[in-house]
């Protein structure tokens, strides 16, 4: 097993790694819309929060030596399913033609009061 860490994404706030690579799979921990410097902006719009969470996810993916086309499965937690369409637009722009398996799960609340959290599985080539 190999842990992955990058300063280009928010550092873990608890006892976990940003990602762990094992047997060809990269397990990316849930990414909240926290800035890489650790600052929080809970009052940001959903679109801004979603973009930050995606940016964190992609930074970790790149730090592992993988690319967005290596994503296998993405799970997205949102505080209301009303955000689905806005997220889908940002997600499509970030991934282009690549379409990994995905679930968008409405939840009652997320840590710090954020509106979105994203976790993923990807092919790990390192």
From TrEMBL:
Coiled coil location: none
Organism, scientific name: Pseudomonas poae
Family per record: Belongs to the RutC family.
Protein's name in the database: RidA family protein
Listed Gene3D superfamilies: RutC-like
Pfam families: Ribonuc_L-PSP
CDD domains in alphabetical order: YjgF_YER057c_UK114_family
GO CC annotations on file: cytosol
SUPFAM superfamilies to which the protein is assigned, alphabetical: YjgF-like
Superkingdom as given in the UniProt entry: Bacteria
GO molecular function, one term: deaminase activity
């Amino acid at each position: 097993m190999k842990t992955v860490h990058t300063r280009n994404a928010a550092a873990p706030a608890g006892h976990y790694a940003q990602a762990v690579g094992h047997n060809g799979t990269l397990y990316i921990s849930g990414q909240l819309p926290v800035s890489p410097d650790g600052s929080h902006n809970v009052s940001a719009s959903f679109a801004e929060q979603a973009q930050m969470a995606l940016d964190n996810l992609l930074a970790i993916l790149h730090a592992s030596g993988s690319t967005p086309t290596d994503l296998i499965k993405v799970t997205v937690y949102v505080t209301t399913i009303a955000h689905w369409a806005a997220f889908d637009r940002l997600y499509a722009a970030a991934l282009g033609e690549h379409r990994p398996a995905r679930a968008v799960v409405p939840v009652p609340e997320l840590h710090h009061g954020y509106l979105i959290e994203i976790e993923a599985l990807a092919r790990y080539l390192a």
